[in-house]
Each structure stands twice: as structure tokens, then as C-alpha cells.
């Protein structure tokens, strides 16, 4: 009998403490064995989930990582996502592969712009959310103010599950509202070391706050939470170990098991016998020594067994999956079996791409993994012209990963890359040098944005192409793309050619 699965992501604005919380969840779950292993000295001074060179240099997450661990008979698949808005595409695709999410909020800052954007993505996909208000050991806004903001800005009912006893300099622990016990800080570092006051005497001010909160906010309701109408809220400090254990327990108790996934011709439920899954991420060079290339597949139905043959939608030829991988960030082990909700890695040499469906039969296709129109376009300038072939390989690899998009102009030989955010350009240049030994720079492109073009009227599309050839390109799949100098030009041209569709997204 397989253990229950909880496949979840952690989302937040940058600097809300997401990476620290990830580490502590792994520690509580027994996946790492040293508190502080993530912040260790020397070569290990980086988060376990941040393995890329630029991540270690800048202290940020720029790629999604997968970490699997087991706690109390439940298997948790934790998908860490980039907090920085420049990597929203990678985050969006990751959120297609999860059944729930933990939203981390800074107690001093409340709801921030990226938090709100990521929440909207979760709402679009009906992904239920547990909220963790972090850094209550520092000075912050009142618990009531934070709860009201979550309720108002995100249009959610809030159900406080724990309550901070003081904040910042007056912080004396976190009250569990169900068990009515306080986790107390100990030692010079004032961390949680296991001291729980089972019969706490609360200061009058705190008791009044708690009574008001219990009267004014919703009770936790598992069905309302799973429907996306309510968020259980936990207060704590990931750095000081207040909250991670309660979060894991909440995910085990409330978070949904693997859910049905949108697909054509019909949604696929986890109870179906045939093995199906979809690729939501591709990562090259996780192991630079072997120049590997891994497709991350969310298993949606059936029991996967090592060595079985699956057919990808991309080319229709069955492939035997001989070395499927279970992940712990950059570390890995061979998976003999996997179940719905699990994330497995499939080593391949360019046969699998983001958006591919894999199944025992080729008659199904999972939907909802779009490409987004880039907001920044640049030309790549090689410093060594003899490296053209290596550059093409590198750009193709990173386009498959979703790091960048590549456009090949109809006129002219300079390839154009498109990204959603500036930081993606820094990642591109860093990885070209570190992984492909290609030194390159970026030059301005004469265009500002791109749109995929199509039409039900072949003559109208042909007329548009002939007149606007100097502004046309093909993406790496050969789809026609209109390169525009501004968003205004997109609108102007769209008005002139009403029979041509200008799409800001394209289904993969």
C-alpha cells in the first residue's frame, strides 16, 4: 500500500523567508540532519534547493527545485519556486504540478506584489493555500492587521490556527489555538527548542486578542480550504523554528491528496489505471560533470514502474524510462516505482520538452502550460564567432527549460532572445559561460515585445506576412511571431488586421 501524497509548492515575495522555511521543513521532515545545514560554512553555504552558480552568488532562487521526504507515513513532494518576479514563468509552470501551496508573508510587510500575483495563479488553478506569517520574532504589524489584509486583498476567509504572544522585543512564543499550548523561546538565540507550556497563563492583553480573533474570524473548514475559499493561517518564525512542524502537520491533515488534472479529451483522475504524466520543467546540466538533461514529470495516474515505456505527445514514439529519478534538490536516487502526485526526473537528450504529456497510450494530452510573450528582447553577441554552434545548442537547451525564448528573424541572421524579466538575462549570460563555455554579451534589439500570430483566414494571414516580413520571426517550434517595437504598435497593427490574432500566450 502506497503512503498518502502531498505535493505542494512554497510561494512568496522575495525576502519573505521562503528558502529558510524550506530548509526547516526539510529538517523537521528528517530530510536533512543538521539544523543550519543550509546555512553551513564554506562550500556548503547555500540553500539545499539553490544549487546553480548564480543562485549561490546572489543568494536567491532562480529555478524551481523538487525535494521529496517522508514524515509520519505521508510522502511530501515539496516544490520550491523562485520568489523573484523575473522568473514568473518557471513558477507558473511549477504551480501546474502541485495540489496545494504554502504562502509565506513577512509579518512587517504583509501582502506584497509578487505574493498577490502568485496567489492569482493559484486561484486560476483552484490551488488551496495555507498561509504562514513569518518573522514574528521581529517587529511587525499586528496580527489583526495582517489577517484583515489577507482577507481583504485576496478575498479569502481566514482561520487563525496559531497566535503570536507578543512580537519583536516582546515576543514570548506562539500559542496553538487548538491545543491551547504555547511554544516558548529558549536560550540566547531565543529559538524553539521543544519547550511547550501546556497550561499557559496568558497576559490579559493577549487573552483579549485571542478571544476577539476566535469570535471574529472563521473556524477552519477543510472543505472551504480545499475549494480555495479559506486559508488556515499560522504565525511563526522559520529562522527560530516556530511553525515548520505545525505546517507539516497541517499539510498532512488538511491539504488535498493528488487531484484530477485538466486534459483533453477529459480530465485525468489519480485513480485511473493507465500511467499518465506531464513535463512541467526541463533542466540541463544539474550535474555539470555529465552534461545531463532532466525532464521533471508530474505523475497524474497509474503506478509507474522503472523500465516501462511511455509515449510522449511531442513525437509519438514510445520511450523506455530506464533511470527515473527521485529528487532531493541536486541530489537524486533511482526510483523503482512512483505514484500519482510524485515528481520523477527522466534523463533524455532533447526528446522531452515542457508541456509534453507522457502516457501508456497517445490519446491523451494535459492542458494549461502556456508560453508567455516576452517583455524584454535582446540580441546575443558572441565574443568568439567560432562558437556559433555551441551558442545555438545552449539557447535551444535554455529555451526548452523556459529560461528564455529564442526567435529566428525572417530577415537577418541575428537571433533574438526574449525574457519576462531582467534577471533572466543575467542567468542566461552566467550559464552560457559556466555550463557551455560560451562568452557572450547582449545588445539592444529593435523590438520590444512579441506576439504569436494566427488566423482562420489563410489569405488574411498571408497578406499580413508579406507586408510585415521585416518584423516577423519563427519561434523554436516554427510558429510565426510578430516582433513589435512597443505595446502600442501591437494594438495599432491588431486594429489594422482584425482577421489576424495576436496572442500573448501560446499553449505548449
Enter the CATH topology name of the largest domain. Answer: Rossmann fold
Percent strand: 25-35%
**What structural class results from the helix and strand content?**
alpha+beta
Q: Order the strands across the largest sheet as they lie in space.
A: 28-25-27-26-30-31-29-32
Second CATH tier, the architecture of the largest domain: 3-Layer(aba) Sandwich
CATH superfamily of the largest domain: P-loop containing nucleotide triphosphate hydrolases
The 3D shape can be described as globular
**If helices are DSSP runs of H or I spanning 4 or more residues, what is the number of helices?**
12
Question: Averaged pLDDT, please?
Answer: 85
Keywords: Cytoplasm, GTP-binding, Nucleotide-binding, Protein biosynthesis
InterPro entries: EF-G-like_DII, EFG_III/V, G_TR_CS, P-loop_NTPase, PrfC, RF3_C, RF3_dom_3_sf, RF3_GTP-bd
Binding site for GTP: 12-19, 80-84, 134-137
GO molecular function, one term: translation release factor activity, codon nonspecific
Give a structural overview.
With 508 residues, this protein is an alpha+beta fold. It folds into three domains: 8-70 and 81-254, P-loop containing nucleotide triphosphate hydrolases (Rossmann fold, 3-Layer(aba) Sandwich), CATH 3.40.50; 263-366, Rossmann fold; 370-507, 2-Layer Sandwich (Alpha-Beta Plaits). Helix content is 25%, strand content 31%. It is built from twelve helices and 33 strands. An eight-stranded antiparallel sheet has the order 28-25-27-26-30-31-29-32. A hairpin with a 6-residue loop joins strand 26 (405-409) and strand 27 (416-419). Helix 1 packs across helix 8. The longest helix is centred in the last third of the chain and has 15 residues, at 422-436. The protein starts with a strand and ends with a strand. The relative contact order is 0.11. Mean pLDDT is 85; it is low at 35-64. Residues 3-259 form the Tr-type G domain. Pfam families: EF-G_D2, GTP_EFTU, RF3_C. InterPro entries: EF-G-like_DII, EFG_III/V, G_TR_CS, P-loop_NTPase, PrfC, RF3_C, RF3_dom_3_sf, RF3_GTP-bd. It is found in: Cytoplasm. Belongs to the TRAFAC class translation factor GTPase superfamily. Classic translation factor GTPase family. PrfC subfamily.
Amino acid at each position: 500500500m502506497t503512503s498518502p501524497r502531498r505535493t505542494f509548492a512554497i510561494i512568496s515575495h522575495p525576502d519573505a523567508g521562503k528558502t529558510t522555511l524550506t530548509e526547516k521543513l526539510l529538517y523537521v521532515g528528517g530530510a536533512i540532519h543538521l539544523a543550519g545545514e543550509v546555512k553551513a560554512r564554506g562550500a556548503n553555504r547555500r540553500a539545499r534547493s539553490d544549487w546553480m552558480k548564480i543562485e549561490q552568488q546572489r543568494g536567491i532562487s532562480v529555478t524551481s527545485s523538487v525535494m521529496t521526504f517522508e514524515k509520519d507515513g505521508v510522502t511530501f513532494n515539496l516544490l520550491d519556486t523562485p520568489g523573484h518576479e523575473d522568473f514568473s514563468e518557471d513558477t507558473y509552470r511549477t504551480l501546474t504540478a502541485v495540489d496545494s501551496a504554502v504562502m509565506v508573508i513577512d509579518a512587517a510587510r504583509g501582502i506584497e506584489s509578487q505574493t498577490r500575483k502568485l496567489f492569482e495563479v493559484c486561484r486560476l488553478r483552484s490551488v488551496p493555500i495555507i498561509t504562514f506569517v513569518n518573522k514574528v520574532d521581529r517587529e511587525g504589524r499586528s496580527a489583526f492587521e495582517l489577517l484583515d489584509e489577507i482577507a481583504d486583498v485576496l478575498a479569502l476567509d481566514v482561520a487563525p490556527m496559531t497566535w503570536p504572544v507578543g512580537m519583536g522585543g516582546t515576543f514570548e512564543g506562539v500559542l496553538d489555538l487548538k491545543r491551547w499550548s504555547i511554544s516558548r523561546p529558549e536560550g540566547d538565540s531565543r529559538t524553539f527548542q521543544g519547550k511547550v507550556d501546556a497550561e499557559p497563563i496568558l497576559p490579559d492583553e493577549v487573552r483579549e486578542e485571542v478571544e476577539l480573533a476566535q469570535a471574529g474570524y472563521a473556524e477552519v473548514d477543510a472543505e472551504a480550504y480545499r475549494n480555495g475559499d479559506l486559508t488556515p493561517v499560522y504565525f511563526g518564525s522559520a529562522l527560530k523554528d516556530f511553525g515548520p512542524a505545525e505546517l507539516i502537520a497541517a499539510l498532512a491533515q488538511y491539504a488535498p491528496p493528488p487531484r484530477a488534472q485538466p486534459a483533453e479529451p477529459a480530465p485525468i483522475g489519480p485513480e485511473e489505471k493507465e500511467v499518465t504524466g506531464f513535463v512541467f520543467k526541463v533542466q540541463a546540466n544539474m550535474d555539470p560533470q555529465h552534461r545531463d538533461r532532466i525532464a521533471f514529470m508530474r505523475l497524474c495516474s497509474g503506478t509507474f514502474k522503472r523500465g516501462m515505456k511511455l509515449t510522449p505527445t511531442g513525437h509519438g514514439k514510445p520511450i523506455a524510462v530506464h533511470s527515473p529519478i527521485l529528487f532531493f534538490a541536486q541530489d537524486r536516487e533511482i526510483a523503482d516505482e512512483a505514484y500519482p502526485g510524485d515528481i520523477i526526473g527522466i534523463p533524455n537528450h532533447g526528446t522531452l520538452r515542457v508541456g509534453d504529456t507522457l502516457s501508456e497510450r497517445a490519446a491523451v494530452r494535459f492542458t494549461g502550460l502556456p508560453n508567455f510573450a516576452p517583455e524584454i528582447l535582446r540580441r546575443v553577441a558572441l565574443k568568439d564567432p567560432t562558437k556559433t554552434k555551441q551558442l545555438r545548442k545552449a539557447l535551444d537547451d535554455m529555451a526548452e527549460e523556459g529560461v528564455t525564448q529564442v526567435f529566428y528573424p525572417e530577415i537577418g541572421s541575428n537571433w533574438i532572445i526574449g525574457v519576462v524579466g531582467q534577471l533572466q538575462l543575467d542567468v542566461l549570460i552566467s550559464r552560457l559561460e559556466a555550463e557551455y563555455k560560451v562568452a557572450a554579451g547582449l545588445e539592444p534589439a529593435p523590438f520590444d515585445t512579441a506576439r504569436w500570430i494566427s488566423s482562420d483566414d489563410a489569405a488574411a494571414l498571408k497578406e499580413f506576412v508579406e507586408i510585415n516580413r521585416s518584423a516577423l520571426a519563427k519561434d523554436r517550434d516554427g510558429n510565426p511571431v510578430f516582433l513589435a517595437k512597443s505595446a502600442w504598435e501591437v494594438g495599432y497593427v491588431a486594429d489594422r488586421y482584425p482577421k489576424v490574432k495576436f496572442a500573448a500566450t501560446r499553449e505548449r
